[in-house]
Amino acid sequence: MPELPEAEVVRRQLHAAMVGATINHIRVGREDIVRQGVESLAWYSVSHITAVQRHGKSVVLVCERGAEKRVVVAELGMTGLLLFTREAIPSAKHVHMIMSLANGPQPELWYWNARRFGRLYLLDQEAWKDYRQRRFGRDPFTMTGDEFVHLIRSCRGRIKAALLNQHRIAGIGNIYANEALFRSGIHPYARGCRLSKRRIRTLFETMQRVLEEAIAMGGSSIRSFVAPDGTPGQFQRRHLVYQKTGSPCPNGCGTRIRTLMDERSSFVCATCQKR
Ligand SMILES: [Zn+2]
Questions:
Q1: Boundary residue ending a domain (135, 166, 184)
Q2: What is the extent of the structural domain holding 26?
Q3: Catalytic amino acids?
């Protein structure tokens, strides 16, 4: 958390407010906030923002200066936020970057992360290409159903681990993996290679629908997530199993939701979710 829907909510607000704006200056709290490319910090002032993209759970500002193009990658990680307003900042202590902007509706963009180390990358085109290839698997919205079936069927391990593997599918985290599996009637410990094509197709369509609904509702505000303008998400109200341990199954089967402790907690109805 934040996962794909929250990153997409951030991207959309940034896109609306920042494309066409000029970066006057980027100030970082400590140099090690920038994991790569800190020596190019000065290049960004004065550059123009020409696009805002999302890759997996990361938000990417595309900047141009003269004929050259570079990017700022902000990984949101577990607790990261990109914010326009000071009011939305949980505590000033963890502000890792302030970007001063001109020629747009917002004067500043703040990067906040409760973790001690933020994760920003300042990359030229070559480094960005390399980073992209290393980090991100397929996007759930641009891959085809056939590609998803192929990918899941090639996994010998637990299906939930495959969904969470960012090198295979980029953007799904623990909330949306649990919700999509429950709604598809698939147990998180089912083996990908043993599932029928039909069930994997159902999972694919369900996953896309859950992600779309979550984006439309501003994401899930678990912990501190808010959009750049300070608006919290509402999709947590639609969660059926995530953090619902002990509640009756929403399908009405009479079983209670159980927690399985793996790398990340799984929330499961043992009756409705089959291996
Ligand atoms: Zn059930």
A1: 135
A2: 4-135
A3: 2-3, 57, 264
Centroid of ligand 1 to alpha carbon of 251 (angstroms)? 5
Same domain? For 257 and 162 the reply is yes
β-strands 108-112, 95-102 pairing: antiparallel
* pLDDT tens column, 151-181: 999 999 999 999 999 999 999 999 999 999 9
Flag whether the pTM goes above 0.90. yes
Neighbours of ion ligand 1 (CB under 5 A): 249, 251, 253, 255, 269, 271-272
CATH of residue 157's domain is 1.10.8.50
Beta-carbon contacts of 195 under 8 Å, excluding residues fewer than 6 positions away, are: 152, 153, 159, 186, 203
- Report the separation in Å between the CA atom of 182 and the middle of ligand 1, taken as the mean of its atom positions: 9
Report how far ligand 1's centroid is from the alpha carbon of 202 (Å).
17
